[in-house]
Amino acid sequence: MKKYLIDLAYTVVGAFVATLLGAITADKVFNVLTFAWGPALTTSASVAFVALLHGVAARFQGDPNRARFGR
Predict the structure, then answer these.
(1) CA–CA separation, 11 vs 63, rounded Å?
(2) If DSSP states are collapsed to H, E and C, what string results for the chain?
(3) In angstroms, how far is CA 67 from the centroid of its own chain?
(4) Residue 69 has what pLDDT?
(5) What is the C-alpha separation between 17 and 15, in angstroms, rounded?
(6) Distance of alpha carbon 16 from alpha carbon 65, whole angstroms
(7) pLDDT given for residue 35 in this prediction
(8) Residue ranges per domain, the chain?
(9) pTM higher than 0.85
(10) What burial class does residue 18 get, using C-beta atoms within 10 Å of its C-beta: 0-12 exposed, 13-18 middle, 19+ buried?
(11) In this predicted model, what pLDDT tens digit does every residue of 28-48 receive, in sequence order?
């Protein structure tokens, strides 16, 4: 169970960070004060939530120690 939770956390945090960095780099010139943080964080949280649902669903298929589908 511990390996699964670590894998799930890695997947969810990775999805959140990757989406947030993608939103930041898509901005023309990044300025921390004028950047639209609300939509970027909302999008990142939404992607992280989908990754969480994916990881929970994958727990019941295949290897129970991994938060991913497949073998």
Answers:
(1) 16
(2) CHHHHHHHHHHHHHHHHHHHHHHHHHCCCCCCCCCCHHHHHHHHHHHHHHHHHHHHHHHCCCCCCCCCCCC
(3) 12
(4) 78
(5) 6
(6) 22
(7) 86
(8) 2-59
(9) no
(10) middle
(11) 777 888 888 899 999 999 999
Average pLDDT over residues 4-21: 93
Answer whether 4's CB lies under 8 Å from 66's CB. Answer: yes
Mean pLDDT on 23-30: 82
Please enumerate, as own/partner, the contacts of 6-10 that have beta carbons within 8 Å and a separation of 24 or more.
7/55, 7/65, 7/66, 7/67, 7/68, 8/52, 8/55, 8/56, 8/67, 10/67
Closest-CA residue to 58 (of 49, 48, 50, 69) = 69
The predicted structure's pLDDT at residue 26: 86
Residue in this structure with the two tokens 């295949």, named with its chain if needed: 62
Residue 40 CA to residue 21 CA, distance in Å, equals: 9
